[in-house]
Amino acid sequence: MTKQWNSETIESMLAAQGIRLAPGRAEKIAAALNAATLSGSLPLEFESDPTGYQLALERCKAK
Amino acid sequence: MSDPAALSLAAAAQALRARHVSSRELADACLARIARWQPRINAFISVEQQPADEGVPLAHKDMFYRKGRVSNCGSKIRRGWIAQETSTALSRLDAAGMPQIGTLNMAEFAYGPTGHNEHWGDCRNPWNPDHIAGGSSSGSGAAVAARLAFGALGSDTGGSVRIPAAACGVTGLKTTWGRVSRHGAMPLSHSLDTIGPLARSAEDCALILAAIAGFDPQDPLSSREPAGNYSLAKRKFRVALSSDWIERHADPEVAAAVLAAARDLGATLVEVEPPEFDTLSAHCITVMQAEASAQHARWMRERPGDYSSAVRSRLESGFAVPAAAYLEVLRLRAAWLERFCTATLANADLYLLPAMKVRVPTLEQTGPRGGAGMPALLAEVTRLTRWVNYLGVPALVVPCGFDSLGLPIGLQLVGRPFAEAALLAAGHAFQCETDWHCRAPAERSI
Q: CB contact, 8 Å: A29 with chain B?
C-alpha cells in the first residue's frame, strides 16, 4: 500500500503536539516516513510485548 | 619519571601504590598537557586545577551530574545548569580512587555522531584537527588520545563511545544495556542509553568498568547480574566475522586493517552471514527518535530556537514516529537479540567488524557545509554501531591501524549480553600482541 505522508499532514500532526517545524522540514520528514518500512522484520508472536526483551537478555547472556 | 601522563591507567595506579609518583604529580602532568592541547582540540569544558581526591585522574563527558556543579550537556539550553545530585557512576569512581580532572566536550545533548558543537565549539581530532573526533563523547575520545586524562566516561546510545574511540585511536567499551547505572546521567533514549569507559587499553577499560558496574537501586533498569570481576586471563576465543561483507562494503583501507587485525587476534575465526545491520539500525533510529523527542518535548515546544539546527531536525523527526511503530519495534527487540545470539554467534563467542566502515571524515564533510553528500556520510559513520544498541549487547572498540592520512582505524568486537569480560580479555590479548593502542598523536604540530 502506498503511504501518503506529505508536508501538510506532517505539519498538522506536529502542530497538534505543539511543535513548530523549522522551514523545509515537513517535506523531509514526510519523505522519510514514506520510505520507512519494517521489512526484514522477524515474525512477531501475538503475545510478545516490550518487556520480553529483559527476559531475552537473561536467556541470551554469556554462560 | 619522564612524563607520568604517558603511563596507562593501570601503570599509573601501580606507580601510585608503589609511591613512585604522587596524585599531585599525576594531576599536574595532565594539567600541563591540557594547557598545551586544549587550544588545538577543544576537548575540555571545565578543568579542575585541584582534583578533589587522591588517585589517578579521569575526566567525564559533561552530562554526568555532580551535586552543586554545572553540567551543560553540550547545550545552550542547559548552559550553567547546576545538578542537584551526583551520578552513581561518578560516585563509584570517587570511591575507587579515580578523581575527576574536568568535564569534557560532547555533542549537544549527546545527539550527534561527529563532535560538532555550535554552542561550545567543535571538538577536534588530536591526530589531525581538520577531522572529527567522533561523537557524541567527542571530548572523551580526544582527551584520552592526547593523554590529557588517564581515562574518561562516555555514554553510548547509537555509537557515542565507539565512534570517538575509533576516530581518536583509543579503546572504548559500550556496555550491556543495564550493566552501568544511568542514575544522574543525562538521558537521551532510555531503552538504548548505556554508559561506558574510554581509555588507552582494554586493561584500563576493565579497571574503570569494575568501579562503575553493578546494580543500583536508584536506576531500576540497572541489572542485578553480578559484576566486578573482569579477568583478562588469556583464553581461547571463537570469533565470527563476515569477511566478504567487510571487503565489499568497507573502505579498502579500513577493510585491510580490520581483516589483518582479525588474524592477529589469535582466535579461531568463523565466517558467518552478517546481521541485518540496516534493518536493526532503522529500528534503533525509530526507538531513539521517539524517546529523545519525548524527553525533549517541553523544550521543543517552548524554545526550539535554542537547539542547533541539526539537533532540532533530529528531534522534530521523532514527533512523527507513529506510537504503534515505536512499540512494534520494541516488541521485536527480544526476537532480534535471540537471532543474533543463536545464529550469528551460534559457533562463536564474539562477532568482529569495523567500528566505522568509512575512514575518519573531516569536520567540513560532516558539518553544516558538508553539501548534498553530508547526510549519507553521517549515516555511514553510524551504520555499524547503531544495530548493537538496538540489541543492547556489549561491544569493544580497539585501535587496529592507521589510514594513509594518519587517522586511526577501529576494530569492533560484539558479544552476548553481559559478555564484557570476554570482550575485554579478547581486546587485551590483541593489545598484548600489537602496539596500536600505545601510539599517541605528536605534540610537535600543536
A: yes
State whether B329 and A38 contact (CB < 8 Å). yes
A53, B330 contact by CB (below 8 A):
yes
The residue ranking higher by pLDDT, B445 or B35, is B35
Residue B446 has pLDDT above 70, yes or no: no
Give domain status of residue A2, yes or no.
Answer: yes
Give the pLDDT score at B50.
87
pLDDT band at B445 (very low <50, low <70, confident <90, very high): low
- Write the residue in B225, B278, B332 that is nearest to A44 by C-beta: B332
**Is B333's CB within 8 Å of A57's CB?**
no
Residues spanned by the domain of B152: 8-438
Q: How far is CA B77 from CA B21, B45, B191, B200, in A?
A: 41, 16, 24, 33
Distance CA B356, CA B374 (A): 16
Region B258-283: mean pLDDT is 96
Q: Is A1 on the interface with B (CB under 8 A)?
A: no
Question: How far is the alpha carbon of B358 from chain A, nearest alpha carbon, in Å?
Answer: 24
Tell me if chain B has a CB within 8 Å of the CB of A50. Answer: yes
* Cα gap A50→B160, rounded to integer Å: 24
Q: Is the pTM of this model over 0.95?
A: yes
Predicted confidence (pLDDT) at residue B167 exceeds the cutoff of 80:
yes
Residue of A nearest to B309 (CA): A22
> Across B27-134, where does the E strand assignment appear?
44-47, 58-61, 100-104, 124-125, 128-132
Number of domains within chain B:
1
Q: What residue in A sits closest to B419 (Cα-Cα)?
A: A62
Residues of B in contact with A25 (CB under 8 A): 313, 316
Cell numbers at B47, concatenated = 578543568
Backbone φ and ψ for B124, nearest 5 degrees, come out as: -115, 155
B303 interfaces chain A, CB cutoff of 8 Å = no
Domains held by chain A: number: 1
pLDDT band at B326 (very low <50, low <70, confident <90, very high): very high
Task: Look at residue B316 and tell me whether its pLDDT is greater than 60.
Answer: yes
Chain B environment of A20 (Cβ under 8 Å)? 304
Using DSSP, state whether B174 is helix, strand or coil: strand
Q: Is residue B443 part of a domain?
A: no
pLDDT for the residue A60 = 97
Q: Is residue A25 part of a domain?
A: yes
Residue numbers of B annotated as active site: 61, 136, 160
Which chain A residues are within 8 Å of B224, Cβ to Cβ? none
Whether the predicted pLDDT of B391 surpasses 90: yes
**Does residue A56 belong to any structural domain of this protein?**
no
CA distance B294 to B119: 23
